[in-house]
Amino acid sequence: MSTTTNQGTAANHGPGPEHPGATPAAPDASATAEPLLYTPAQAAEKLAVPESWLRRKAGVRVIPCTFLGKHLRFSEADLRAIVASGSRTTGPQRRRTRRTRMRSV
Question: Most-buried pick from 17, 49, 85, 96 (CB within 10 A)?
C-alpha cells in the first residue's frame, strides 16, 4: 500500500512535529492589542477629558505628546504622565483671610 499526502491541507503547513525546534507562529496580536499611538480623540476618551482641552494643552506643550509631522498623537506613557501630573496630594488647607478696607477720612 502506498500512502499519499495532500500538501494542500492546513495540517501540513507551518511548524509541527515534523519540524523539530521550530516555534509556532504567534497569534495576530494587532486585533486585540492597544494602539501604539492614540489620536487626540482616542486619548481624550481614555482620559475622560474634552478633546479641545487635550489639544490646547498639547499645543502649548504643557502636557507630554508626540508630533508626527503635523499630526498630534499620544503614547501610553504620555497618557500615564498626564494622569500623574494631574494628581494632587491632600494636605492642610490654607484659610483665606478676609482683607479689610482702609477708609480714608
Answer: 49
3-state secondary structure 18-43: CCCCCCCCCCCHHHCCCCCEECHHHH
* pTM reported for the whole predicted model: 0.54
The conformation of residue 61, written as its DSSP 8-state character, comes to T
54-83 CB burial, b ≥16 within 10 A, e <16? beeebeeeebbbeeeeeebbbbeebbeebe
Chain position carrying cell 480714608: 104
What's the average model confidence in pLDDT over 63-71? Answer: 94
Quote the pLDDT of residue 97: 75
Which value, in Å, is the radius of gyration of the alpha carbons in the chain?
Answer: 29
Cell of 14: 507551518
Q: Mean of the pLDDT values across residues 51-80?
A: 95
